[in-house]
Amino acid sequence: MHEWALAESVIKTVETKPELKNKKIKILLGELQDIDEEIFRFAMDELLKQRESQIKYSIVVDEAVFKCNECGREFFMSEITKKSKAQRENIHFIPEMVKAFVKCPVCDSIDFDIVKGRGVMISYD
Ligand SMILES: [Zn+2]
User: Fold this and answer.
1) What is the predicted pLDDT for the residue at 112?
2) Which CATH class is domain 2-124?
């Protein structure tokens, strides 16, 4: 249940940053990150309630971006059409598996970098 651990560390981080007080924070969950959004939201709400915290937040799924090392093209999960639903779920649960079947939609190279979509970030307006 690392959603709970993540929720706790997000809250602790926000609490230690005075500039985030009274702001509505945005939590960006990487598309390739192994986080269940519903469990995470539930954990956030429960922990905030326990702490009587005034933190307001929203959750945004951060789309994964890949960059081909052959042709330089940047591409998204939605462009990789050959994947099956099962593969998508594998990606969700085991980010490392992305390397096993993702390839550049332009030149078919399997030599690519994950530019974003793996991390969890906090931002605010
Ligand atoms: Zn390419």
Assistant:
1) 92
2) alpha beta
